[in-house]
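User: Could you write out the 3D structure of this protein bound to protoporphyrin IX containing FE? I've included everything you need below.
Assistant: Certainly. Input first, then the structure.
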Amino acid sequence: MKKFHGTSPRGLLNHPASPAFEGVFGRIFRTLPKADFSVKALKDLAKEMVATPDPPTPETEIDDEENPGIDAGYTYFGQFIDHDLTFDPNSSLQKQNDPNGTIDFRSPKFDLDNLYGRGPNDQPYIYEPDGVHFILGPAMTGNAKDPKARGLQRNNSDPKRAIIGDPRNDENVIVSQLQASMLRFHNVVADNMLKENPNTAFEAMQQAVRWHYQWVVLHDFLPTIVGQPMVNSILPHLVSGKSIFEDKPKLTIFSWSNDPFIPVEFSVAAYRFGHSMVRPIYRLNQTLVDRQTIFSGDPNKSLNGFREFPLTWAIDWDLFFDPGGAPLVGKNRIQKAYKPDTSLVNPLGDLAIAKEISGDLQIPSLAERNLLRGKEFGLPSGQSVARYMNIPVIPDSDLRVGKANEDGENPGKDGKIANKLLTDISKEFKDNAPLWYYVLTEAQQEFKNNGTALKLGPVGGRIVAEVLIGLLVGDSFSFLSQHHDWKPFKQFLDKTGQFKIRDLLRSIR
Ligand code: HEM
């Protein structure tokens, strides 16, 4: 049997290793026992976690699978962040994996190595001859608000692959355009700085871009995903008004000896929450007549990546990140992410339908891959992590599998999420839930069918927040370490003085 490598669906069987890129994966909960499951139980659970296909909700209606609290763009910004931090092309779904022996091919830092690669000297083909600006791809149309829209430069292979620092950032059309937008942001920052001082060094521009991005992760992405109170509990200086130097970060579960690492509880479980936020269909801009499905067998109608897609598909980011006051229905509607719940949209159950990402995909269900990966890395159960963290454990009678809505395919009789109990699928799951599932079910518990925003809960939210903040705090080059009072450039701020991902994306137009 051909050996399966983790990221091969994304075409990465032979990624070159470079010592400069390597960190190690490790564990947060080193003393907790690994949760044991049979492969059959996990496969059965994975099957239940993939929704059956249903017709798309028209744009004239609000889709009850949407999360009112999180705009759809955060899903792909989350994926972009993941690709900046982690990349494990080597672990196998067929053997036990030791996190301490698993290499992270991305530096566990918010340093945008997925944009910069190894820099202009080592990878000159991603930079303009000036060695300062990124080479951009062809002009894109369809979004009148962004006449300067550009795609990614591509090679001449068939299909044409993007020439970028991390090939995974071309996995789907949305993350691909986010990568192109971030390259443009670097170029805009470079122009701004060169105007001020024509002798500005590339490293200074790189630092400014990284710090703007880190700012957005801390002040926009994290509060959106885990809630501001969780962020404040880890960084009390944000509330006290003192400096981070005086009012130090409070990391309760994540610690490291020399340099922070990527914990497998984060990369194999908690941070994969984003898979459940993927929508089945997206509007890219107002000019296109149709919306595009996330993945399908017909690349002309879907967002399959790793190929050149129509140049009329320029994304209007205002449909993905609310610019303020966007309507909830119609062609200009703000698209919301799907709820973080124990259900993935149907196309993610069979990634092989997107031929370009199929590779040698022997396990095409993303749900199954996540669950098997958790088993292979010997992750503890969600319940044992909750107990360790002194957080009330969700009783088995509340652990449901399905969509967090009441008129979905599997509505709960008692008005509570889905009918199907985790323990109906296998008795092995009694007080023993896979960590990825548990993080999702925790978020799902917030569902009240009254328009509540679903965010990550106390276990998932703390793992995600402590790791992301820990990586920032432990990076001696981050803005939190180097410049306590640093603020984003004034010209990029919104009217209220804030700088969010939507402002970053507006600055490039
Ligand atoms: C359409 C969107 C996405 C697709 C098709 C996708 C697909 C995949 C695939 C195939 C893997 C490898 C699975 C394995 O073999 O273990 C993976 C890993 C992963 N994904 Fe996604 N993903 C998507 C979006 C996201 C989002 C939105 C997030 C988080 C916000 C995310 C977080 C992760 C993480 C943390 C890993 C492990 C990375 C590593 O350590 O190498 N993904 N994804």
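The pocket of protoporphyrin IX containing FE is lined by residues 6-7, 9-10, 75, 78-79, 82, 86-88, 171-172, 267, 271-272, 274-275, 278, 294, 366, 369, 373 (CB under 6 Å).
User: Perfect, thank you.
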